[in-house]
Design brief:
The structure holds three protein chains of three kinds. Chain A is mainly α. Chain A is built from twelve helices and two strands. Helix content of chain A is 68%, strand content 3%. Chain C has two domains: 236 residues, Rossmann fold (3-Layer(aba) Sandwich), CATH 3.40.50; 42 residues, no CATH class. The chains are: A mainly alpha, B alpha/beta, C alpha/beta. Chains in contact: A-B, A-C, B-C.
Chain lengths: 280, 283, 288
């Protein structure tokens, strides 16, 4: 399950999207998420979908990899869809027997919600897929730099994020190893009452904690040896620079906002019957 | 010219328990490391050799005595960054030294902290990765590399700061034979081709014999200081402090005790075989 | 009769994904009671994956592990028994210590076996003796010990289950020469005193040459060679090809042979080498 989570993973390629300034991508992602929420009809949402598809194909990341990000939330999507079908009773009746009563409105709302959630997840994943964590934190660093004046040091936060991302795979590996070792001494992590199971985790968590403290101490030494002093006067190898690509990116952000608002106004509020008729 | 000078250094760690005074980890230690040297520091675990690494760039400050790096005293906080840039330290566990999630971004971490220009950082990162033979892995994620590869990335991260001296604290202790070989190769290159001063802390004899000079530590003190041949000419002393002697030396010693007239300073397999051959042919 | 046996063991990580890796490929090994087995191979050769199958931690995609002729995955009970009958000590075991005292940590395995207090106490003290942990250390916190002591406590934590087969994965890695010697010595003594089967996983040929009665060489997820120390070291050039080294002393004798001297190649310790060379020197004196 832990291995299925794709948010935070980076997929290094040499595409136009990868080369964009992280700030452009941050802006785009935030705007995109807002626009998906704002979309109040299928046409607006389809526009968001096509924009998403365009970005995915430009990024050259395999579709399969992109869709993998949906796996952990498949359950949430399913539940949401079922609830929509159960509660929305507008439109024409599609199926009716015993206590089940499915309407076109219910189905369409379910599809609408499922698509909305999927787009949110997939496009958030796309941000980390196409932006290396260091580049992303650099971007955040710059975006939040003005807050330093009011006493909020965002650099520390971004450094913590980078280190967390760096050590998550290492710690997962370590958990696996300690578990195997304790199992070899007869530890049982899978059976027994909740209390018993919680207790069984002690032989896992104590070594993990001790090892992490040791790692943290050694990492701090190593960072000091590499002249880390809290980010004062720090430069970046991949310096953030707005290029033509980024201006184009910002322009497309404007286009998306404009398009979604226009489509919202002209195609009207989401109306199950209307959309259904349109589809038929 | 000396690059690091230990002048009668004594250091003790603070105990976690209040009021408990620990024995010094380093006692009255004096050593001059010259520019361009390749020194191995030998000693068993707990002999104080790792403390020497941390004292050499101001990670630890001596209780008594001074450590002078290129004319700067590590006690002087104003020179701190300068000292750490002059003397880089690589540690034993490669996992706990890599900061970034992409190899080349990790190597850039040091120069970035130093405020170097981006184009210059790029040049240094590429060059450092080429020196350690990891350039082809520059876009990889560190956690997917082998131990030996990670350690070479850690070394590249130090080289990119362009230090004049690199201290390596048991960099091969956690590696398999292949990883050890590759790391050793990279370290030798640093010294022989780039002229960087190398201080190599280890307990592997086969690695120590590669150095120009060996310093042996025991019980927090400096016990011996000389060329590998001088140091291993006294196998009993080495063994008495819990260290190994290369098998060639052990064999030569046994034969010499039997009155066979072998040379005194045989370290490599080839030297020993050659010498045996000469004696047998001479008879 | 074979004590522990694998039949056509095959194991793949990430089955059904493009990242599929075959870690074991049709592995057959056969270990008799009382043998001292060394499994050697470079990192990634499959040796660690193999030993994790021997106590049932991993389950192969195909093939089986037989303990006294019975499949360890036959049912829940056989698997539960295999955990304790085949004791597995991981690499860097000191990082798995967790109890408040050394005593409690060594008792963790026996306690999981459901033994009585008296039995546990006896086993803890016995195991501590084998690894040279004095009584007064038993009440200390394992986190206050030195690296070498921690390693020995961790090994005692497996020995205390009194397994019929003791497996140690790279027991000496990261230790200095003295620590290495101590660990190898205690393993040797343990085996001599208990007569139990011991399996050591290692990439150091120097360590195994002195003790092993059988050597299994792993390469590329397969068993590359099986035999006595002599039989395996005879193929020195092949060992080097697959990334393993032969002891320095063996190299000396290979080189002497290349120079035309009639010396044995089966030299793995300094002692053997000394005796062989002594013969050579004496021979040359009398020949003159």
């Amino acid at each position: 399950m832990i291995k299925d989570i794709t948010i935070g993973q980076y997929f290094p390629l040499n595409s136009v999207i990868h080369k964009l300034d992280p700030r452009t991508k941050l802006l785009f992602t935030v705007v995109y998420i807002v626009m998906v929420f704002v979309s109040n009809n299928f046409i607006s949402l389809f526009f968001c979908l096509f924009t998403g598809i365009a970005i995915i194909s430009l990024s050259k990341i395999p579709v399969k990899t992109v869709l993998k990000g949906l796996k952990p939330i498949l359950m949430i999507i399913t539940i949401t869809s079922v609830l929509q079908i159960a509660y929305v009773k507008t439109g024409i009746t599609l199926v009716e027997f015993w206590k089940i009563h499915i309407t076109s409105g219910g189905v369409l709302t379910a599809v609408f919600m499922a698509l909305r959630i999927s787009l949110l997840i997939v496009m958030s994943t796309m941000l980390t897929y196409t932006t290396s964590p260091t580049s992303l934190t650099n971007g955040l660093d710059r975006v939040f730099a003005p807050f330093k004046k009011i006493g909020l040091d965002f650099h520390t936060v971004t450094m913590i994020m980078t280190i967390a991302l760096r050590f998550i795979p290492t710690l997962i590996e370590e958990v696996d190893k300690i578990m195997s070792a304790q199992k070899s001494r007869g530890a049982n992590f899978e059976q027994g009452s909740l209390m018993k199971r919680a207790k069984a985790l002690i032989p896992l968590f104590i070594p993990l904690l001790f090892n992490s403290i040791r790692r943290a101490y050694e990492l701090a030494n190593a960072m000091t040896c590499r002249c880390y002093n809290g980010g004062k006067g720090k430069t970046t190898m991949n310096a953030l620079k707005f290029t033509k690509r980024d201006y184009f990116g910002v322009l497309s952000v404007a286009v998306v906002i404009g398009a979604v608002i226009t489509l919202n106004i002209f195609c009207g509020e989401y109306n199950a019957e209307f959309t259904f008729n349109l589809a038929v | 010219m000396s690059i690091i000078e230990f002048q009668n250094v004594t250091f003790r760690y603070e105990s976690d328990d209040e009021g408990v005074v620990l024995a010094p980890a380093v006692k009255d230690f004096s050593l001059t490391i010259n520019e361009g040297e390749f020194i191995a520091i030998l000693g068993h675990n707990g002999s104080g050799k790792s403390t020497i690494a941390k004292l050499s760039n101001g990670l630890l400050i001596p209780e008594i005595g001074d450590v002078i790096v290129n004319g700067m005293n590590t006690k002087n906080e104003d020179d701190d960054i300068n000292i750490k840039q002059t003397v880089g330290v690589v540690f034993q566990n490669p996992d706990n030294q890599i900061v970034a999630t992409i190899v080349e971004e990790d190597v850039a971490f040091g120069p970035e902290n130093l405020g170097i220009e981006p184009t210059e950082i790029r040049r240094r990162v590429d060059e450092s990765l080429k020196i350690v033979g990891m350039y082809n892995y520059r876009n990889h994620e560190p956690h997917k590399l082998s131990g030996g590869q990670k350690q070479r990335v850690a070394i590249a991260g130090i080289i990119a700061m362009e230090p004049r001296c690199i201290i390596l604290d048991e960099p091969t202790a956690m590696l398999d034979p292949e990883g050890r070989r590759d790391v050793m190769k990279a370290i030798k290159r640093l010294n022989r081709e780039l002229g960087i001063t190398v201080v190599f802390i280890t307990h592997y004899m086969e690695e120590a014999v590669e150095a120009d000079r060996i310093v042996v530590m025991d019980d927090s003190r400096l016990l011996m200081d000389g060329t590998p041949k001088q140091v291993f000419a006294n196998p009993q002393k080495i063994r008495s402090i819990g260290l190994d002697v290369p098998q060639t030396c052990q064999l030569a010693e046994l034969l010499k005790n039997d009155g066979i007239n072998l040379k005194n300073d045989l370290l490599s397999i080839d030297e020993l075989v050659e010498n045996i051959d000469d004696i047998l042919k001479g008879q | 009769m074979s004590h522990l046996e694998t039949k056509n063991l095959t194991f793949t990580y990430g089955e059904g994904t493009p990242f599929k890796i075959t870690a074991l490929d049709n592995v057959n090994i056969d270990i008799s009671k009382g043998e001292f087995v060394a499994i050697i191979g470079h990192t990634g050769s499959g040796k660690s994956t193999l030993v994790q199958h021997l106590n049932g931690l991993l389950k192969s995609s195909s093939g089986e592990v037989l303990l006294d002729g019975k499949n360890i995955h036959a049912n829940k009970q056989t698997l539960f028994d295999a955990r304790f009958r085949v004791g597995l000590c991981f690499q860097y075991p000191e990082y798995q210590l967790f109890e408040e005292t050394v005593y409690k940590d060594i008792a963790f395995g026996p306690a999981n076996m459901g033994l009585s207090k008296g039995e546990i106490d006896e086993r803890v003290r016995n195991a501590a003796k084998y690894v040279g942990i004095p009584d007064e250390m038993l009440s200390k916190s394992p986190f206050d010990l030195s690296g070498g002591e921690k390693r020995r406590v961790a090994i005692a934590g497996v020995i205390s289950m009194e397994p019929e087969i003791l497996i140690l994965d790279e027991p000496t890695s990261g230790l200095d020469p003295m620590g290495r010697e101590q660990i190898l010595e205690l393993i040797k003594n343990y085996r001599e005193q208990t007569g139990k089967t011991v399996i050591i996983v290692s990439h150091s040929m120097d360590d195994v040459a002195r003790f092993a009665t059988k050597v299994i060489v792993m390469n590329n997820s397969k068993v590359e060679m099986t035999g006595t120390v002599d039989e395996v070291f005879e193929k020195a050039s092949r060992l080097r090809e697959i990334g393993l080294s032969v002891p320095q002393i063996t190299e000396i004798f290979i080189k002497l042979r290349e120079k035309g001297y009639n010396v044995s190649e089966k030299i793995y310790t300094v002692e053997q080498g000394y005796l062989e060379l002594k013969k050579l020197f004496e021979g040359s004196v009398t020949n003159d």
